[in-house]
Design goal:
With 76 residues, the chain is mainly beta. The protein has 1 helix and 5 strands, in the order ββαβββ. The chain has a domain of 37 residues.
Length: 76
């Protein structure tokens, strides 16, 4: 039997950028990923707290506080 369990969670984060012409990953600041114990390439679910809509994708680490400010999340 295979069970999928929650390993890390970023709760009530604000998406600060979206690329409507690219469907795929979510880019999260590397420090935020580390704090939430989420690995680059790991499957993640994004949930809209206003209507419950879900999107399953994978995480990509943004630059370590480089062009992304700490805590920035970008959906592409």
């Amino acid at each position: 039997m295979l069970r999928t369990m929650l390993g890390g969670k970023i709760h009530r984060a604000t998406v600060t950028h979206a690329d409507l012409h690219y469907v795929g990953s979510v880019t999260v600041d590397a420090e935020l990923l580390r704090a939430a114990d989420i690995l680059e390439g790991e499957k993640v679910d994004i949930v809209d707290i206003t209507n419950g809509a879900r999107l399953s994708t994978y995480a990509i680490a943004g630059g370590l506080s480089s062009s992304l400010c700490t805590g920035v999340i970008s959906i592409g």
